[in-house]
Amino acid sequence: MTIVIAAVTFVGLFIALAVVPTIVKKRHAAAETEEVRE
Amino acid sequence: MPTLFENRFFHSRGIILFLMAIILCVAFFALPVIAKAADPTGADTLAANPNAPVNMIWVLITAFLVWFMQLGFAFLGAGLIRSKNNVNYWTKSFMDFSISSLAFWAFGFAIMFGGSNLFPGLEDGNSFFGYSGFFLSGTSYDVSTIMLWFFQMVFAATAATIVAGAVAERMKITAYLAYSFIIGALIYPIYGKWVWGGGWLSTLSIGDAVGVRDFAGSGVVHMVGGLAALIGAWMVGPRIGKFNKDGKPNVIKGHNLPFVVIGTFILFFGWFGFNPGSTLAATDLRISVIAVNTFLAGATGAVVALYWMFMKTGKMDIVMACNGALAGLVAVTAPCAYIAPWAAVVIGAVAVPVMLFTANLVENKLKIDDAVGAVPVHLGNGLWGLLAVGIFADGTYGGIQGVITGHFSQLALQVIDVLTVFAWVGPTALLTFWVIKKTMGLRASRKEELQGLDLPEHGIEAYPEEEKVSIP
Q1: Are B351 and B325 contacting, i.e. CB atoms less than 8 angstroms apart?
Q2: Class of the B34-443 domain?
Q3: How much is the average pLDDT of B405-433?
Q4: Total domains present in chain A
């Protein structure tokens, strides 16, 4: 059971480390572009 | 062209909430199961072994020294790069050990020491892969097991941080942190299991020699970090302006020489935790020999490098002396316990030509931009250190005998160890950086790189000009 939890956590955390920063960065870039446009 | 994670599919609050839910679930399940704990107070351990306190103090203090080496790496690398990327570099240095240590807590330690039976909670595993001790929960919630975790964690963090310098000034920080997670969770622990966790390399026998020997990690820490650094630097590509069109490399000077020297001093000091601490016991009085061997190799490396460059250029090059010291220290890390002091001097001296040869190979032949020279020091001399065990071991410690005593079997084992590092770390580091490149992207944009990564990625400079205040 612990191994399964560890495996799921591993995949989850890696995706979190990869996906979340990419999305956050993209959103901030979009917001900055919008501010410049205004 | 957008990377996979820049795709619109991922741009919803739902996916973020889903990921957060996974993390919360894990936090819940990973809570230590106190009822199953072995000896979380230490009372039983103390009753069983009166030497336990002195050994525990020794291991923990040396681990603190090794952790302090993170500051040395940070100073060293920061001094060797340009000021416009310094906030980025310090952030990477500070965060890579934070992330890799958490990965080592959750997965790495269990993979590396599960099945080793060194301490409670580490019973399950095979020769390739351990699977007990995840999250330091259950019976691994024990004072001795947790002591081992702490000591091993700082080593894992050292392997992770070696890469920061090689890929400096152009790798995205988000990509770098994702890589730190993978090396702490998988790449480092699996190979570490084979050597230090009772894995197949530790039981392999040839002739009268049993098991490869890497006392404090020339291979496990430095070769692993150095090879990952080489692959990372190759995958991310050279900095703008590093190579001319004809392939000739240019020198991109660092911004702060005192940082380089301070970093080297701190690393040198930390090495007295790295090597002598690897006895895991203060009652093993070989620690004096190990400390002196460590010192002699580092000092010899510095002297040989300084005069080598002086003969070549007529100048006393302190950066080269620092790199020479580090090369000697890396090289003596594997053999430090098995050799006599004279051999440490020879190993430190040979480390310098090994470093220069590797630097020439990486920069002029392979055309890979290693921004701070991490690969020659860690990969080149990690390799040399592993081989040096098989050559200079004198049989006075652990019965390990090298070529100087007329035994060649240990050297053969050490060669297999070297080949194993390449066979394991090469493909896995390549795959890791490739996946990151295809999903989130490895490299900052050209505009960001030219501007320096500090402002685009952090919104702040390391050395902001004095704020211009208008005086009424």
Answers
A1: no
A2: mainly alpha
A3: 97
A4: 1
